[in-house]
Amino acid sequence: MAINAQVLQGEWNQIRGRVKEKWGQLSDDDLQIQGGNVDQLIGRIQQKTGEGREAIERFLMDLTSRGSSAISQAAESMSGYAHMAGDRLREHYSQLADQARERYDRAEDMVRSNPTQSVAAAFGIGLVAGLIVGLALRSR
Question: What ranges in 29-52 are assigned the alpha helix state H?
């Protein structure tokens, strides 16, 4: 039964508190992982507590597997939320695209049914816009 040293080191700040709860006689110095050597850590815990090596390893493995499963659950939850958000975004985009297409079609129908009025309206809007720009340039 071997402990995954990388997982233990990655989660050590959270796990250290649980180890101190179980074995209160351990100091912060006792719980240092020096140079990534987990065997030394287990040896120090064994020496200070009198606990067997297998029991210490089992306890640490339980703590790291709980942490890993909690991280996995959080990742799965976030993935689910991201999928839901993506689905909602696609749904709203689809609705907006449909509305824009519908309004464009209505405007096109209006121009086809009233071409003279449409040209006159466009000419009038262009004329007003030109006057506004011209007056703005002269006032400088």
Answer: 38-49
Where along the chain do its domains lie?
5-113
35 — alpha (psi -120 to 50), left (phi > 0) or beta?
A: left
Tokens of 6: 């990388």
pLDDT digits (tens, 9 = 90+) for 15-66: 788 888 888 888 888 877 767 677 888 888 888 888 888 888 888 888 777 6
Residue 53: count of CB within 10 angstroms of its CB: 13
114 phi and psi angles, rounded to 5 deg: -135, 65
> CA dihedral in degrees (101, 102, 103, 105; nearest 10)?
80
Rounded CA-CA distance 113/4 in Å is: 76
Backbone angles phi, psi at 28, to 5 degrees: -60, -35
